[in-house]
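Example record

One chain of 131 residues, shown exactly as stored in the release files.
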Amino acid sequence: MVAAIRSDTGASRRLLLAALEGRGVTLLVSVPLLIEYEAVMTRSQHLRAARLSISDVAALLDGVAAVAEAVNLAFLWRPTLRDGDDDMVLETAVNGRAEAIVTFNRRDFAPAAIQFGIPVLLPGEAVRIWE
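Predicted structure tokens for this chain:
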């Protein structure tokens, strides 16, 4: 999500726009994950780089919440990853039966995601598969 707001032309932005426009990309979200997205995306360095305001991020996340598939976190696996905040991504993916986790943080996610049978893709790889 951060990469999607920071780069106008990157693969992350293309995937986010496809999801928002209903063009074959489904996002999975949970309440804790949306809260984490908001906390991270509204950090001053990301707002400056993205040339967005807090209200812009709120509107974007409202759009994400409107189109995404809501996931109930029936099971939690903590701690699994080095960064506890990343556990929310993994838990949402596992509980939502995700086809993939798309992230630039492959190093941290791959070992845990593999045990759940979820491939970890770089955004460019996900775009190539989607197209």
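Notes: The beta strands are 28-29, 69-70, 101-102, 120-121.
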